[in-house]
Amino acid sequence: MEKAPVFDKDKLHAIEKLRTELKQSDPANLLTQYNYSILLYNQYKVFKYDSAYVYARKSLDIAYQLGDAQKIASAKILLSFTLLSSGMFKETADSLQNMRITALPDSLVAEYYALRARYLYDLADYANDAFHTGSYNKQAANYLDTAIAHYLPNSFAAIYYTGLKNIRSGSKEEAMHYFNILLGQGGLTDHELAVTESTLSDIYIQRGNTDSAIYLLASAAIADIRSSTKETAAMFNLAQLLYRRGDVKHASRYIEYAINDAGFYGARQRKVQVSAILPLIEAEKINRVESQKKILITYSILITVLLVAVVFLTIVVYRQVRKLKHAQKVIYEAHLKEQHVNQQLAETNAMLSEVNSKLTEANKIKEEYIGYFFNANSEFFSRIEKFKRSVELKVSERKLDEIKFLVNNINLRREKEDLLKNFDKAFLKLFPHFVEEFNLLFQEEDKVILKDDELLNTDLRIFALIRMGIHDNEKIAQILEYSLNTINTYKTKIKNKSLVPNEEFEHRIMAIRTL
Q: CA 258 → CA 1, 231, 250, distances in Å?
């Protein structure tokens, strides 16, 4: 549908080319004028009624000037087809009634009787009653028999009209056989394909096989768009089926497209058909909008209630945290009342556990990480306290050499490495698949390969800190004891090797999930 203007532009370009050639031709050469009028009619035949009518009339006038009975009959058939396509039944009947088909070739006789059959079928559909419809269908079937007898055997028209006659008479299985022959043999034009699939869909509709009917009508509508066919019922019938199924969104879009096609072509009966279902679709759209509006109001109320609940819980949590801090202060100041304080601490921890169960996944990760490093720091402070007592003892005993030995025995580099390893362990506990998912962002030769004794390396630690929410390069440099330029260089080098754009890299790192 979005490409329809492109196909229409190609159609108009072909028409303009023919019109230019017609203007440049010799006006006195009636045969050339007739042939160009027929060519232009065929371009407008299912594209635009008024233009098709003009060239059908022009070809008829030229045929009379030529005095050629065969060309007169051919032009009259074209004019009658145009009148019927636009929904002008009386004018079509008058045009067909005044035709003489004696001494005409089989091809024109076949077209004449096929047109009469279509005229009667359209009248039957328009009447749609118990008094006239049956009679019209019976007369149309007789005309089709005559038309089929004059078509070339195994031609598209002969096979198609045989199928049409069977579907109208109720022989659906036999009709399907003929339509499947056409679809199976291939080589059909877009218009022939659209006509065949659209007609075949009627059988599936009558059988209640809506899925197959929708598929055929969608394919027919696509073929109509490709061939710039505006005189079509495929899109209209597709909209009807989708509306009955409850797909109002697409039904509305397709019915509007069908209205535009009918208006562009000038098909009166199509406008009437479309106008009958359009109010139903629009009413259903309005009902759905109202229903959605009510749902949105309900959701708004629910969200408001939840927001109030969140605010209330936030206040409760804030108060509980304040109570917790106060309890910790009381514990510190009232060390002699350890038993009583321990009881309060147990109660407070129970309250904290209840509060923590309502926190988000991010808060849980941060609390678990902070708790881990509190334990690490506790061990570190214990060692410092032990070192302090040793130094105080040596000072009191004036053993300066042993003090110097104790001081020199402190390996800060090893302490730093132990700290980083502790960080690595804690991080990988929270993000056990971090390394694997990090490597997915690189080609095989650029993936990080860790040594046997490594949990993370510098490249991984930089982005591990980022995943923990530390995005400040200066803070990262301070933690890892590198210069700011070094951190920036590491990050740029890593991002340039990745399979994703630089600006997206950190977003992909943040998307790595914890347990």
A: 11, 9, 12
Each residue of 230-283: pLDDT tens digit?
Answer: 877 888 888 888 888 888 888 888 888 888 887 887 766 555 556 556 565 665
Task: For 75, list phi and psi in degrees, rounded to 5.
Answer: -65, -40
> Per residue in 369-399, pLDDT tens?
666 666 766 666 677 777 777 777 777 877 7
Identify the three-state secondary structure at position 400.
helix
- CB crowding 153-181: b at 16 or more within 10 Å, else e: eeebbbbbbbbbbbbbeeeeeebbebbee
Which amino acid, one-letter code, is at 105?
A: P
- pTM score above 0.70: no
Q: How far is CA 156 from CA 113, 237, 393, 415, in A?
A: 16, 23, 112, 90
Cβ(406)–Cβ(397) under 8 Å? Answer: no
pLDDT tens digits, 304-324: 888 888 888 888 888 888 888
Burial 475-512 (b: 16+ CB within 10 A, else e): ebbebbebeeeebeebbeebbeebeeeeeebbebbeeb
Distance separating alpha carbons of residues 1 and 7, to the nearest angstrom: 10
